[in-house]
Amino acid sequence: MTGRNKWISLGVLALLIALLPLFFPSGYYYRVGALIFVNALSVVGLVILIGYAGQISLGHAGFAGIGAYACALAPEHLGLHPALAVLLGAVISGVMAALIGKPILRLKGYYLAVATLGFGILVSMVLTNERALTGGPDGMNVADLGLRSLLRDMGWRLSGGEFWYMICGVVLLVGAWLALNLFDSPSGRAMRALHGSEVAAATVGVDVPRQKLRAFVISAVYASVAGSLLALQNGYITPDVAGFMHSVEMVTMAVLGGVGSVLGATFGAAILTLLPQVLTVFAEYEQLVLGLVMVLVMIFLPQGLLPSIARRLKGRDE
Amino acid sequence: MMSKTTTALATLAALGALSGAAQAEIRLGVSVSATGPAAFLGDPEAKTIEMLVEQLNEAGGINGEEIALTLYDDGGDPNKARTFATRLVEDDEVVAILGGSTTGTTMSILSVAEDEGIPFISLAGAISIVDPVRANVFKTPHTDRMACEKIFTDMQAQGITKIGMISGTDGFGASMQAQCKEVAGDHGIEILADETYGPQDADMTPQLTRIRNTDGVQAVLNPGFGQGPAIVTRNVAQLGFEIPLYQSHGVASDAFIELAGAEAAEGLRLPGTALLIADKLAEDDPQYKVVTAYTEAYKAKYDQDVSTFGGYAHDAFALIVDAITRAGDSEDPQAIRDALEATSGLVGTTGTYSFSPEDHLGLDLSAFRMLEIKDGDWLPVE
C-alpha cells in the first residue's frame, strides 16, 4: 500500500461517514451507523493483529469488556469523568494485554486461539460474578458523557443518535488513520514480515516477540475504546459485551471484510451489523445465514469480500 | 402463520412501502428474547402476544382500529434490544413498547422509552425497573422482593425463624438472594447459612451438607431458576433433610417437577401465580375467567402448556389494550401513558393491577399463591 492508497482509503471512509446521513429516512439509522462504527473500530484493531502480524485472538471481547466497565465503574467509584474513564480503560487493557501477551504469544495457531479465548472467558466470568462491583449478569448503568448537553447549551441541538453517529464516526476515522499509518511504518513492516515467516523475519533482525506483543497491545486498546464507546452510547452495560460470542463476531467481521485491509474491516463490520437488522422477519435463521455467508466467503473469497472484489474490478492479480 | 404475515406487513408498512395503509392502525412494538439464552422467557412471551393480537384483530380491534404488531427478537442481547427499541420508536413509529424479557434488555429499552416519551411495559423481574418510578416505564411481573416476603410470611405462619439459603449466581438467583436478605429481618427471619452455586453446577451436596450441619436451621430456601433448583431438590432428598424446602417463583412450571422428580419434590413449597393451578381454580375465583381463557387458547394454538412468563406478556398486552381503549386517542403515546397510569383493578393472570403515579408495578402480595407439590402436582396451600 502506497501513501496515495492510504489517503484514498481514508477519503472514501470519511466521505461515506459524512454523506450517508443525507439518505437516512429516520433517526434509527444513526443508531445503526454508530453501531457499525463501534464494531469497525474493534475490527480495525484486529486487522493489525490478524492481518498485519498474523496472530489470532478469540478473546478480544474481554478487552471490550474492560473498556466498557471502566466507563461504568470509574465515574461511580473514582469520581472520574467518563471521557477520562475511556483513557483509563484503554490503559488497563493495554497493560493487561502486555502482561498476558508476553507468555501466550509464544503459542502458535490453535494454542494461541485457545489461550486468548481463555482470557476472554475469564474477564466475562469476573464481570458476571463480582456482583457487588459490576451488578452481575443484570449489568449496571453508565454515566452520561455530558458532552451532548454541553453542545446543547452552546446552541447545537443533536439527538442521541446523531451525536453518537458523529462521535463514533470521528473515532473510527482516527483509528483507521493510525492503523493505515502503522502499515508502512518500520513496526508495520516488521509485523508483516513476521506474518510471512517468523524465521526469516528474525534472521533480518526483527525482534519477533516484541512486534507480536506490540500488535497485541495496540489491538487490545482498539477493542477497549470500542467497548467504552458502546457503554457510553447505550448508557447501560451487561457482561454480554465481554462474552465469547462477541469475540467470535469480531473475528468474523474481520475475516469477512478482508483481514488485511482497514476498509475491508469496516465493510465486514457494516455487513454483519446490518444483517440482523435486515433479517428481523426471519430472526430464527439469522445464525444460519451468517454461517452460510462465512463458509461461502472462506471458500470463494478467502481474502475477504473487499480485497477480492477490488481485485476482480482491476481484472488482474496483484 | 397469520401473525407472521402481520409482522411482515407491519415491517413493510414502516419501511414506507405501505405507508398509506398504516393510517387506521394502532402500531404496537415488541422486543423480546425469543431466541438465545433467555428464550425460555421470550419464546412464550412472543407466542402469547402474537396470539392475542390475532384474537383481538379478529374480534374487531380496539374501537374499530386493528393492531399492527412489530415484533423483534433481541436474542437476550441488551445492545440489540436498544437498537430495536430505537427502531420501534424512530422507524416503526409505535405508540407503545412491550417486552424486555430480561433485566438487562429492559434497562436498555427503558432509556429509549424515557427519552422519547413512549410508554413501555417491561416483562422483567428486577425491582430497579420501577423503583425509582420513571414516567413511562411499567412492569407486569412481581418483584423478587415480593416473592421473598410471601415465602417469609408462610415461614412465620409455620413458626420458622432460622433458615439456610442456597442461591444460584445467575441474574435471577443473585437478585433474589439480595432482596431476601434485605427483608428477612422484617419478618423475624434469621439467615444462618448463605451458600451459592453456579448455574451450570451438577451437584450441590457440599453446600447443602454445610447448611445441614449449621445448628438451628429450620428450613432451606433456594432462590434460582433453570436446572439448579431441580438439582438442589434432588440433593436435599438424597441427603435426607427433615426440614422443609422452599423454592422460588423462578421454577414455577410443570417442567420443574419432571426435572426434580415427583418423589424428591414432594412437599416443597413455592410462591406461584394462578396460571400454575389453572385447572384447580374455583369458578368464583376473580382470576378464573382470565386464566382459563388464556390457558385454553394457548394450548389449542401451540399445543404447549402456558408458563408464568407468557402470563407476564398476556398481562402487559391486556394492560396496554385497556389503556388505549380508555385513552380514546390511539395515536398519542402521552395519552396512552396517562391512561395506563390510571389503570385500576385490571385482572390479569399474574394478579390484579392498579397503577398510580407512585406505583408502576401495581401488584400486592395477594398476586402470589403459596403452592405445595403433592403427588407430582401443584396444590394451593391453605
From TrEMBL, chain A:
Signal peptide: none annotated. Pfam families: BPD_transp_2. One of its GO terms (cellular component) is plasma membrane. It is found in: Cell membrane. The chain crosses the membrane at residues 7-24, 30-51, 58-75, 81-100, 109-127, 163-183, 254-275, 287-306. InterPro entries: ABC_transp_permease, LivM-like. GO terms for molecular function: branched-chain amino acid transmembrane transporter activity. Keywords: Cell membrane, Membrane, Transmembrane, Transmembrane helix. It comes from the Bacteria. It is a multi-pass membrane protein. PANTHER family: BRANCHED AMINO ACID TRANSPORT SYSTEM PERMEASE (PTHR30482:SF18), HIGH-AFFINITY BRANCHED-CHAIN AMINO ACID TRANSPORT SYSTEM PERMEASE (PTHR30482). This is Branched-chain amino acid ABC transporter permease.
